[in-house]
Amino acid sequence: ADRRLTPKGIDTGVVGSYRECAFQNSLKTFEEGMRFATSTSFSGYSWHRMGLEGFRNDARQRSVSDLIQSKIGLTAILEALTATKTNINGNPTAATTMKNGDTGDSIAIGEAVAGARKLLEVHESARFAIEVECQYSLYTERQKTQVLRMREQRDLRIPKDIDYGGMSWFSSEEVEKLTKIRPKTIGEANKINGITPASMSFLFAHCLRVRKAENMEKKDGRSSEERQTATTK
Asked: Which of 2, 35, 117, 126 is 20 to 30 A off residue 191, Cα-Cα?
């Protein structure tokens, strides 16, 4: 919320210079941390050799963000990286590599160790924000994909007999608005104020299921009730 709302406060002039400076610094730390989490990647073999588990010990490349989505804490990952021996002098900025004899993997590790040490020095709240963003990035990407699909199929029709009150994912306010307005298509429903993106995603998925069932009925010339009766005989 801070990253979403503070820039608006800065634009409207309600955020002071001290708060703006602090926000810009925290945003820079967050963005650098996210770049590190998404770009720092090793094979499962290499991560396991650093003492991290909870995923397959294989040749598949996994980023720091991937490990966080596997329920491994960011601090634990950073500590495992910084404990890795980089070279004979212990210089973390040297262009050294860590090799995995089983796969022929050769990975530049010096920069990763330096980045991990830098992140361990920032405030715990900054690391927490990065960890949360990585945890939910998979779901937000899925939702973005679904939003794009909804835009492409905004003419997808909503069943006339749909019972919004019988759908648990709608809030009482959403049920009231949808029942009163009775939008005919997904595009019309998406224009109603107060309907959340999550609720729209559920509605969209429901309408797709209904359309698929209707297409199946047209294809075999039988209703869903007739098919069900046929399977019980």
From this structure: 2
